[in-house]
Amino acid sequence: MASGVATVWMPVEDMRRALGFYGETLGLSVKSEGDDWSELNANGVSIGLNAREATHGTGSGGAMLTLQPDGTLYDEIVRLTDAGVEFIGEVSDHPWGRIATFKDSEGNDLQLFEPPSG
């Protein structure tokens, strides 16, 4: 039985660029960094940046990572857009919350999640 998320692995093409995106643009703290593996802390969840092996072609995505912003969804969209992040489509509203989708520096799918108010 799974008891929770231990680590989320994100495949990356360029470790330096990915560390800049996750550490500086998203504001996650870097726990360790290396050429083939780096790790960040996302409020107690470890995010591993895993260098793609030379035998793998470039991918159009990989693992899906959903992040919950500290402030409002729209404030974080503005902040990330100002940092050069391009969002895919509009914010989608659901009974269970709102989602805004974008890609990281390596082409992986990411989302911002805001739970329903009230």
From TrEMBL:
Occurrences of domain VOC (ranges): 4-115
Organism: Mycolicibacterium hodleri
Domain of life: Bacteria
High-level lineage: Bacteria, Bacillati, Actinomycetota, Actinomycetes, Mycobacteriales
Ranges annotated as spanning the membrane: none
The name this protein goes by in its record: VOC domain-containing protein
